[in-house]
Amino acid sequence: MRRALTGFVGAVLEAWQELRVHRTRVLLSLIGVAVAVCSLTTVVALGAIVQQANEELSERSSGRPATLYVSAYTNDGGTLDAEAMDAAWQETLDRYHVDYASRVAQTMLLVPFVTGGLQVGAQAVDLPYGEMHRLRITEGSWFTEADAARLAPALVVNEVFWDRIGRPDLATHPTVRLGGDHGATAIVVGVYPAASWETEPSMYLLADQLAAVRAADPSGGTESDPYGGGTQYEMWVPPAISTELTELVRRDIGAALGDGVQVDVNRQDYAQYGDDPFLVTKLVVGGIAVLVLLLGALGLVNIALVTVKQRVREIGIRRSFGATAGRVFFAVMMESVVATVAAGAVGVMAAVLLVQSPMVQEFVGQGMVSDFPPFPVDAALLGLASATLVGALAGLLPALVAVRVKVIDAIRY
Amino acid sequence: MTLLRLEDVTRTVLPPDQPALTILNGVSLTVSPGDRVSIVGRSGSGKSTLLNLMGLLDLPTSGVLEFDGRPAKSISGAARDRMRGARIGFVFQQFNLLPGRTALENVTMPLHYAEGRQFWRRRTLAAEMLEQVGLGHRLDSMPDRLSGGEQQRVAIARSLVRGPELILADEPTGALDLDTGQSVMELIDEVATRTGAALVTITHDPAIARRAHDHYRLDRGVLTRVDDPADLHGDAPPAAATIAGDAPPACDTTSPYRTGEILAGKIPAGGSTGPGPSTSPTPGADS
Fold first, then answer.
1. Which residues cross the membrane (chain A) (predicted)?
2. B105 touches chain A (CB under 8 A)
3. Both A261 and A219 in a single domain?
4. Which residue of B has its CA nearest to A319?
């Protein structure tokens, strides 16, 4: 035990001394390792962020896992009784204690901007929709219960819309007209970011308030559902019971609406097929990272081998003063490992600084990531573990060469 | 008590695609604590191989090699390494100090392979040892900032810092001028005497060899004892007792070493009187 302790401490001291003496060479060789580890860690961390961005994008369009979409239509092509459907829907939500559910209706509303009136795409939703689709709000906030109780409809608009009305401070409760002459005055309560391809204004409003706007101005200004899809119903449920719930919801709503009505319940979120939809991204990113690391390791092995050849005499001297073959092997390995771990730590720190910099986050997120994940701990650990592994592998060959040194020949060399 | 014993030791190597080559042939040698042994031999005579064996760096092909009564073959490689570090000290011709390390770090190096108190107090012990060889003021000097003599003193401090029982000096003055060589040998002698260590000096300088009490000549792998140190010079052992091997070739009887003139201090300083290496009087050579 005592021998093992002194042996270990001695080997680390020797390794440190060796690194100190050859600091220029070590520094140069380690730059490669640090860059490789930095690249690996950065790629893995960015991969996680890109995955997060993809998930958020998917969630924004089709909801979080598991989101069930319910739609109903009459078999004879007639109009579905919306009130009956709403009642059946509410009853089903209550029965299964589903807290996150929303109606979603697409519509167009006339908004008289100062540059002229414009039909603006609007989605009429319920309160939980923002949470269900992880909507990112840059100004103001998503709808609250207080907004639902307003007499004037509340709006959450995109940045293009907000620009059109002059980017007013939301604390001043800016208003816009909706509809034609008999339209309503709506209050803008929140702003969500527009994707880079979005150039037209759009907005959300609460489904119940849309009904009030239509009731006030039935003649003009609104175009109901230009896509002909009717109102959709979404519910966010635990993935584990989603399959079972799909059947139950179809049965219950179908029964409530009676014969002649077809009810469809589908799961449409990105995780609906069970397998990892980002597997390909992960594999590609991982492959690149491994290649980068291999290149760094090759450079290190090269330098380490040349160095050991130059150190034959020193190794011979150490052997003649009592260094066992195992000790020489361990010391040469330790040099490599100590050095690469230090370089790995530097590389990981550089990667953290790089990935967490606002510029990189903006570039990677493209304004689409609301919950920018913190630097992934597993990426940092992977970087350090890879550095240690590369150090051990790169030290292995030189250590084997060092053990084979013939002592007296080495000294007289 | 015998520290090191070689009995009829043979060392053979097998060069690729060539017949076996005998480097050492029937070598017998006994070294006890406090002994002063010199071994003289030309290049290629097998000195390095003998040094390997005495330093437990190699094992004989046949014969007996014992250290402190234990056959070397019965000791594992790692145990032999540890035994070498703890009980044998090397002094090399080219000093072989580690470049880029201070004198203190060089002397500390063997203590990295020690255990217990020696390991944990290594810097103190190394500084004390350097003090003893007169380099207490050069602890932080790099080898390339030291003179040849100072470097060899550091090397001596390094070889003695673990208190070895056997000091193997391989051409210890080969890279030094005569005066410095003499003072270095005096230092080694003094420290060895003080610590009671045995000193085996391998050299091709008869003047250095004569400082020892027991003299041997190694020629073509055969070790012969030389009773009269004056006979150390020449191509081959003269009227020496052949321990093993074939009869030695004729010696150079005209050498001043042969006639003992150098030993008696009759050669003027700086003069060269014979075919052997030039040397100055060796007042310490009294054996």
1. 26-50, 283-308, 328-355, 375-403
2. yes
3. yes
4. B81
